[in-house]
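Exercise 7. Predict the joint structure of the components listed below.
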Amino acid sequence: MENKIVSPNPHIHTRTSTASLMLDVIIALAPSMALSVLFYGWSALMLLALGAGFCVLLEWAIAKWMMRKPQLFCPSAAALTGLLLALNMPPSTPWWTVLIGAIVAIGVAKMSFGGMGQNVFNPAITGRVFLLISFPQQLTTWDIPKGFIGGIDAVSGPTVLSQAKLGGAASVADLDLFRTFLLNPGGSLGEISGLALLVGFVYLLCRKVVKPWIPLSIFVTVAVVSSIFHLCNPELYTGPVFNLVAGGLILGACFMATDYVTSPMSDWGGVLFGAGIGLIVMMIRYFGSYPEGVSFAILLMNMTVPLIDRAFHRKKFGYGRA
Amino acid sequence: MTGTFLWTVGILAALGFILALILFFIAKKFKVEEDPRIDLVEKALPGANCGGCGFAGCRAFADAAVKAPNLDNNFCPVGGNEVMKQVAQILGYEIKQQSPKVAVLRCNGSCENRPRINTYDGVQSCRVKAALYAGDTLCPYGCLGCGDCVAACKFGALSINPETLLPEVDEEKCTACGACTKACPKGLIELRNKGPRSMRVYVACSNKDKGMYTRKACKAGCIGCGKCAKVCAQEAITIENNLAYIDYTKCKLCKKCVAECPIGAIHAVNFPVLKPKPAPAEESKKEAANE
Amino acid sequence: MSKLTFHIGGVHPDDAKLSHACAIEVLPLPPVVYVSMAQHLGAPATPCVAAGDRVKVGTVIGEPSGFISGYVHSPASGKVKSVGPRKDLAGHNVMHVEIEVDPEGEEWEEDIDRSDTLVTEIPTDHAAVVEKIKQCGVVGLGGATFPTHVKLNPAPGSKADCLLVNGSECEPYLTSDYRIMLERPQEIIVGAAIMQMVLGGCRCVIAIEENKPEAIKTMEAALAQLGYKNMEIAVLKKKYPQGGEKQLIDAVLGRQVKSGALPISVGCVVQNVATSLAVYEAVQKNKPLITNTLTITGDCLPASAQHNYLFRIGMPLSYIAEQAGGVPESAAKIVSGGPMMGKAVANLDATTVKGTASLLFLSKETTKRHPEGYCIRCAHCADSCPMGLEPFLINRLYKAGDLEGMEAASAQDCIECGCCQYSCPASIPLVDNLRMAKGQVMAVIKNRRSNGK
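Solution:
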């Protein structure tokens, strides 16, 4: 008979693993991905597949050949990065930009910091911001390719956020915000439907993969800040509902800001982190030169995570109330 | 425009001057007077900060050496007599010569000698393993093989032999700093006299169980039979708790005990192979001892 | 009644109470028993018999050797064969008394009442009862085997206002407490009433988790029938580690025991249901603690091989496994105790002690550790820690050797419940390292305290 195993307690383990957690997030993104493929057709499918596939390949190669630590490679995590990167791009983006984005995301933002769990910045967002700065034209051209479902009345042209930037709040006043939330072809792949993103996020909450504090804090901060400005000058500053549903806020708040590695580990730290993101997003939207600021806001707040983790700790048992 | 420019330069210059003044006075007020010899002694030391001397690092040792009335209690095992001579020169002290030492593993429970009866599946750390249970063999005293000593060694002198799963000491690299002796939860590593031309005789076992149990656990375990003690002319060998121990200050390296040990638990290392062919019995003993 | 639970952390492992329907069977005695002298927390007992002595069932064979220590009694009648070291569960040498059991019939000490009649009358002499509990070698059977008489004798100045009887059995697989609550509820309740009297007639709460509805019903019925005052049954939510002393007090009373303090500091004494039964037998029947109930279970045992046994101390584990049908081939690990906090058995020849609660046979899939991955900062460990600690942080500080940092992060408060490691998706061996960190910090604190004095 084989020798028995002896080890310290505990002797059982949850079925959850890093890979399964990442897979859960991918499943949560499924509704959005499905909608974007339906409405944007082959080009969306190609971007998603290319992003995921190339990120997986790249991480495997770097882990194996450059870092000589094959155990660093986690396919589902790499695929998730690739999918998030693709979801943050307009459907008309040329295919090669995704490859460059993947190299920056996996190679620079993730693996050069030591791989899984070591990165300071969210890899997908780093990739996207790198592309946004390097190829502004490709990343802000919103041509809508032909989808599998025809006859949608989407308009090519600037997004609502750009309109608001140029013409102030008045220029987007007649927008049907509820429809924008339900289905809004014309932005990045992942921004197609806020509802689909929220459905995915609720799935994550039910599976206890993430906690709601970071997104909630972002939404509340955005709503509060935009309400104040909107009340001061409704002609110039867009209102809270518009700011919540427009652009990549829901995608960023629910799926990018909640990334384990680059967000604080305590609940209250998460609230502060979210508040910071919300504030920076609104500052960029109102006063910055870019129409959208979710990516920049998350990157900036990523830098503060070590500090937040130092400042916020959990309430220990036996120290507070008697 | 020019006004703004001048103002900026002026304010910054004034600020710089005030800060410089503050720094100057603080530096004066809180200046620490230090014996300059501490720096000299520290320079003479190897600078490994290994803690082998019992101090936190080389600087702490230098500080203590300078303050001490003599060097009797301060010895740098890494630098050895050479370095201590220099230190003594700087401080004008006498030193006692200490013979160089080397780390010796008092266990020979290789995979072959000591069959494994269970598989350990925890953190690869001897400390954790020792806290959990007696070990994956029947011997509760022997090496656990997770390499805490290897991790503790700052000189790369220890490595786990993948075949025996025991640590091996590289005598060239070992500085006898003693870090491994503290790291081993079973206290298996001893600093022993390096010996003339590195020749040493020692008992490679720490099992205090009765002979019957020891034999069941390990082929190379000392059973405390006492034959070695009887044969030793120097009375260097004592048997305590069913375990033989050779006092290296008394041992004259005659190797009689090595030949006498029925188990081969006494190791004689670095002895030159005798040119005239040794008796076959002795050779086989030696082989057993050296494995 | 609203369901209670503790407020910080906790995990929900699979229940896996496979043997819950198996009635308790009495194990026959093996030809030889080996009685360990280290059956309780604290100093091991000193053997007071020598080879050749004749002993009866219940004869004292080990005497306490310190304040926190206990008596050990012979579980069988026969001849003492030897007194000497023998390997325990972990392979360490521990003093054992080897007794050759009389093959024909057993002889009990005369003053032990072996009848089944329930004695419900509660004695009123505190000191006598505590002395009896001590004389009968009763220890806490919830896992820590802390001598019960010490716990029931709070230091002067502290007074208990609530006795908690722990029937939560929150560890997966284990069913021995459940079975005794089903089969011997009245005795448990009388035992609880005795302890209640010893503590000065305080309130008494018997806490049971909701996943044992039968036990709750039976215990409630028994309590109603016996009609003791100031005693109630509390139903708890199912959550591990509910049976931890501090967690149970938090769950039932909402009081937090301060870091480093004992439950008595918040006026509580916690005893296990099995201890309560032992107290009953000791006080009412004069029977020393030589038996306990143990569960033979595991995910690689068929339903027919699951058992709940009433065993005598000193039976070798290998003998019990044999009685239950042998060690299954597919068992990769044998655990004594629950799967979260139990000890892996390194030596199946070890003998049962007072606190032995189970023998688990776990399959490789269930129990084999996954290779250690990389921390992804998911904070699941911190979320599940019932002490509100941050295991990931303590783990990192331990690896860096930062003692002060570990103390600031309260490594000393770790209860080693295993929640963090259980829930870690990267399978990082947090408990292994935290236990070491705790030990190091405790040593520092102890040192400081002794220096301060």
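Discussion. Chain A has 14 helices and one strand.
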